[in-house]
Amino acid sequence: MKQNARVHADRPYARDAAALGAAVGVFGLSFGVLAIAAGLSVPKACAMSLLVFTGASQFAAIGVVASGGSVGAALGSALLLAARNAAYGVVLAPRLGGGRARRLLAAQLTIDESAAMSAAQPGSDDARGAFWWTGVAVFTFWNLGTLVGALAGAALGDPRSLGLDAAFPAGFIVLVAPHLRARRGRISAATGALIALLLVPLTPAGTPILAASLGIVPAILFAGTATPRLAGEDGTGTLPNSMDTDGST
Amino acid sequence: MSWTVILGLAAGAYAFKALGLLVLGPRSSSPRALRVVALLPPALLCALVAVQTFGAERALTLDARAAGVAVGAAAAWRRAPFVVVIIAAAAVTAAVRALA
């Protein structure tokens, strides 16, 4: 208990990282189940989760294969979904630090959850800590989930019956909140969301999120002269909700 | 799906991750570039929220997720802890699905 309290005080993101990891783990279960259903062996399903490690891309790839699509289509749609991780890398790079070897390892853990959790932290130390805690938690649960799902098969239920597909967007709302305090952040957010929604019916999966990067353009044009607003430079008042209330729960 | 395809997919996915973290990121470290890069998380994360809430294959839809995410957003607004927000969103979504 004492140890727990200390960890929470030092690393307020640790519990959030574990919660996100657990939710991801349930989707890992369903990936394992679907991979087997799509004709993959257990080693292949596990290799995908270990080596590809980008949930949306993995689901897309086995989805195309299961519906009889070509290898090219599977690779294309999966890689289109993976492309946004390059944008996360650009965001993470300045605050992640570490040598080349560490960064090569960090690259494998660069996904939605770790990037969002890191970007929500005001200080560089916490940004780095949140990245690694979330990345390792998600990697662990995702791979355990895949293994169990692949072995246990269809006996497991659909995570959507637990409503877990709504847990991720809700969690990302908490993590994006610190970025919405500045006007330029709000412009970027609103434009990004609008671009993505407009493109969902028109483009292949993956493109809407990637194109949402252009949300920064109006933010630069209309509020570009404001003072720098890196999450780490905002000073007080940028703590995410989870940190503010951590001690009380 | 052959081992070649799996390894190709792994290589491609890793290439994107490394491209940002090891190539593009370190090259955009001027104060001006950092100011621009700091605007990426709200754009990408809000897009993710929008697509994960309203997206269905190649269409937009209003289903149980919207109710769950709305409750989650309200909880976030009231400064509820992260874990409470995601559990509330999941619970409401599951309840709406069960009732529908």
Describe this protein's structure:
The complex is a heterodimer of chains A (249) and B (100). Chain A has helices at residues 2-10, 14-37, 42-52, 55-66, 71-82, 84-96, 100-108, 112-119, 124-152, 164-176, 183-199, 207-211, 216-223, 241-244. Chain A is an all-alpha fold and 249 residues long. Chain A has a domain at 2-156. In chain A, helix 2 packs parallel to helix 4 (55-66) and helix 4 packs antiparallel against helix 5 (71-82). The longest helix of chain A has 29 residues, at 124-152. Chain B has 100 residues and is mainly α. Helix content of chain B is 79%, strand content 4%. Chain B has a two-stranded antiparallel ribbon with strand order 1-2. Chain B starts with a helix and ends with a helix. The interface between A and B is large, with 105 and 79 residues.
